[in-house]
Amino acid sequence: MRVNDLKLHYPKAGVSTIAVHAGTYDDPMTGAVGTPIYQSSTFILGEDQYQAVEQGYARDRFIYTRYGNPSQWALQEKMAALEKTESAIVFSSGMAAISTTVLSMLDKGAHLIASNELYGGTYNFFHHELPSLGFSVSYVNPRDMAAIAAAIRPETMLLYFETLTNPLLKVVDIPALGKLAREHQLRLVIDATFTTPIAMNAIEYGAHVVVHSATKYLNGHSDLVAGVAVGARKYIDAIWPRLLAYGGCLDPHACFLFERGLKTLALRMKAHEDGAFQVAQFLENHPRTRQVFYPGLSSHPDHDLASHLFKNMGGMVSFAVGSDQAALQLLQNLRLMRQATSLGGVESLVSLPFNTSHAAYTADQRAQLGIAPGCVRLSIGIEDPQDLIADLAQALDRLPI
Ligand SMILES: *Cc1c(COP(=O)(O)O)cnc(C)c1O
Asked: Do 309 and 316 contact (CB within 8 A), yes or no?
């Protein structure tokens, strides 16, 4: 297959150039400038394919779409280039990428250490599924390196963390985790959904595999559910047989949408960051709000670490309005921002942790994590920031005193 091997001709290509060009399939028949959609479940078998199956390199040939498809390959090349590593596999959801990756990196009876502020779906998988398969999990404060080190046992194999926590956007020290993993010969998997490869490449800091829910910023248009695992070829090659077994492959048409979304990733992330920064500044100066969290604000407790690690501060902002009742009223008052869970799309979305991501927690448990009553989470889209600010201003002004 002829893909655009950008590395060969432009080894110093910037991230926007990579996002546009890397991996694009050069169709020799038509000269199409984009990757065609290979909407085919299976491929004609010849000598070469039979040999690949027999000799164990079926991942490198087209045989059947769960095994591989040109639409997946193009996308995987682009993701590997964006994460500055060798290989990637796309999945039918972020959770398929996460569960398949984690299960491929654990031996029988292994222990893993994970953040105590994980994405809910990941927590459910770790808490309900892994123990029933004979694995054990310790949950630690992701900002406490001493506690993470202290949780290591002889049977520990894996560290699993997210780059930014939800909803308070605590910045996790990925380089320190990479160092710890190296010292103790542990594997490190990082969920970089909230930061994207535009902000940081966790593999450069010692992560072995980076996973993303592509449903969010990578695709960026709230019209697709997908996931991806990225890393050195030897790790991704070990994930691939599990993909075959668990079955979470990505459909070719979804690959097309995902690849199209990725082309504007750098551009969109700039707009998300610009809008989120302006909205965060507005909220910080508004009398009705308290506890505004945005890593790009100098008031954020992890601002220094974020400035050191991230080339882009992203589009997530959270703040509190004093009570969950007031937060519910605020949502009713908003006219432009839509009430929906999920994040990372071109349209701004708003949700409340107390009745969505953290509904299973008691008010005390939420307080312990630092989630104040009336906490509101914003995913800032790419609209004109002044329109978002005007919407928030009118919604805050109409809250009862
Ligand atoms: C949404 C999300 C996931 C799950 O991804 P799906 O595509 O919904 O399966 C995992 N991790 C994080 C941080 C997420 O935000």
From this structure: no
Q: Is 162 in the pocket of ligand 1 (CB under 6 A)?
A: yes
- Indicate whether residue 213 lines ligand 1 (CB < 6 A): yes
The pLDDT assigned to 232 comes to: 98
Q: What is the pLDDT of residues 280-315, one digit of tens each?
A: 999 999 999 999 999 999 999 999 999 999 999 999
Catalytic residue (choose from 25, 38, 67, 119): 119
Average pLDDT of the residues of the chain: 96
| pLDDT (mean) for 373-388 | 98
Q: pLDDT for 127-168, tens place per residue?
A: 999 999 999 999 999 999 999 999 999 999 999 999 999 999
69 within ligand 1 shell (Cβ under 6 A): no
Q: Which CATH architecture best describes the domain 269-397?
A: Alpha-Beta Complex (3.90)
Residue 196 Cβ < 6 Å to ligand 1: no
Rounded to 10 degrees, what is the CA torsion of 91, 96, 102, 103? -100
Catalytic residue among 160, 187, 191, 302: 191
Q: How confident is the model at residue 322 (pLDDT cuts 50, 70, 90)?
A: very high
With a 6 Å cutoff on the Cβ, whether 216 touches ligand 1 is yes
Q: Looking at residues 195-207, what average pLDDT do you find?
A: 98
* Catalytic annotation present for 38: no
Among candidate residues 5, 10, 64, 66, the one labeled active-site is 66
Q: Which fold has domain 3-262?
A: Aspartate Aminotransferase; domain 2 (3.40.640)
Domain ranges in the chain are 3-262, 269-397
Q: Name every residue whose Cβ is closer than 8 Å to that of residue 160 and which is 6 or more positions away in sequence.
A: 102, 112, 113, 114, 115, 118, 122, 126, 189, 190, 191
Q: For residue 328, give the nearest of 372, 375, 285 by alpha carbon.
A: 375
Nearest CA to ligand 1 atom 6: 94
Buried-exposed string 77-105: b where 16+ CB fall within 10 A, e elsewhere:
bbbbbbbebbbbbbbbbbbbbbbbbbbbb
**How far is the centre of ligand 1, averaged over its atoms, from the C-alpha of 56 (Å)?**
32
94-106 tens-digit pLDDT = 999 999 999 999 9
Atom of ligand 1 nearest to the CA of 96: 9
